[in-house]
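Researcher: Next entry in the queue.
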Amino acid sequence: MTRLFALYGKTINWLGLGALIIPPLLLRLILAYEYGEAGYMKFSGENWFAHLSFPFPFNVLPVELSWQMATWFELIGAAALVLGLATRFFSLSLIILTIVAIASVHWPEQWSSLGELWKGYTVLDDGYGNYKLPLLFMLMFLPLLFGGAGKASLDYLIARRSSANKSPTSAI
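Model: Structure for this entry, 172 residues:
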């Protein structure tokens, strides 16, 4: 029984070593792929934002500016996520972009009960909205927003270099 507990402890320690590397890296890569793909589709496609109604303050912006902002935040954000550069900034930016997308595109046009609203928690829009994937993407950003990009990132390297350059005598 003692061996089993020792093996369990070693396994937990081994998993703990990868916790600061593997999960944030995989979250960054899958989110980068999804947002990069969406940005590329906007970049190479036609502006279809004209028929949408955006929430305030995005409804006061010209449609072309909204299109460009969404396109470039998705493309640059995806590249930054791959590199793990300014991860918290781009996580927050893409969360805001996703909230606007849910409100403008994915939320049901009308619903009269929580049961009807729940029907929109799906991937396909059968007349009840389809906010499942954007909501999941937003939740996937939360560990990156609060915990950072992880050890396999430029953010981590920059922070290490920055703290290494601070000498105790520089504060005097």
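Model: The chain has one domain: 27-149.
Researcher: Noted, moving on.
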